[in-house]
Every structure is written in C-alpha cells, then in structure tokens.
Specification:
Strand content: 25-35%
Order of helices and strands: HEHEEHEE
Number of strands: 5
Low-confidence stretches: 37-42, 113-117
Mean pLDDT: 76
Helix content: 10-25%
Length: 117
C-alpha cells in the first residue's frame, strides 16, 4: 500500500486491519502533515509521506511511510526507533500506535490531540 492523500477510505481500511483504528471511526479527510508542525523531526528524516488523518471522533492520527531508497528497511527501522522512544507526559501512552513493516508505514497519535478510543 502506498499512502495517498486522495484515498482516505483505503487508509481507513488499512488502519482497521492493523488495529490502529477502532471500527466505526472514519477517516473524514487527509492532509499533508508539515514536518515542522510539532511532529518529531527525527522520524521525518526517513519518511517520504507524512499524512494527518482527521477522524470522525474529532481526533487525528499521523501516518508516515518511508521512502523508496537504497536502504528502505534501515530507513523504516530508524523511523520506528525514533517513534518508539517518544512518550507523552507521565501517565500517558506512547505516541506510536503501531507499524506495518512490509508497507513501511507507521501510525502515531497526533501530538496535542487525544488518542482515538
């Protein structure tokens, strides 16, 4: 799967299948996530596609996909490692919701927004 801003339904179905999004919550629209908008820059170094998914429960998720490079596995694992090391304030859950290694996609809670329930 290739992330595309024009395919919120495909991303929604993929997120359902991965367990990142509960059934019944829709991806209402997608927008490009600016790497300078508070989303971690270490992750963005390896990401080619950064999308913010606006959800029907008034929250947002960030979907990142590693680019096609000479070492896509290394780039992807660098993205996962950077996301895994992040945590919110004490008592909150980590930002990383999960990743799909084969597609080189990771899904994160959008910083400053609540996680979907």
């Amino acid at each position: 799967m290739k992330l595309s801003i024009e395919q919120p339904e495909a991303i929604r179905e993929f997120a359902y299948a991965q367990g990142w999004l509960p059934r019944g919550v829709e991806v209402t629209h997608l927008e490009n996530a600016d790497p300078g908008d508070g989303v971690v820059n270490d992750i963005d170094k390896s990401a080619n596609t950064n999308l913010r998914g606006h959800l029907s429960n008034a929250t947002t998720l960030i979907f990142k996909q590693a680019g096609e490079t000479n070492a896509p596995d290394e780039d992807f694992m660098a993205m996962v490692d950077a996301a895994s090391s992040l945590t919110h304030k004490e008592g909150e859950h980590p930002i990383l919701l999960g990743y799909a290694e084969e597609e080189r996609i990771l899904c994160m809670r959008d910083m400053g927004h609540d996680a979907p329930s």
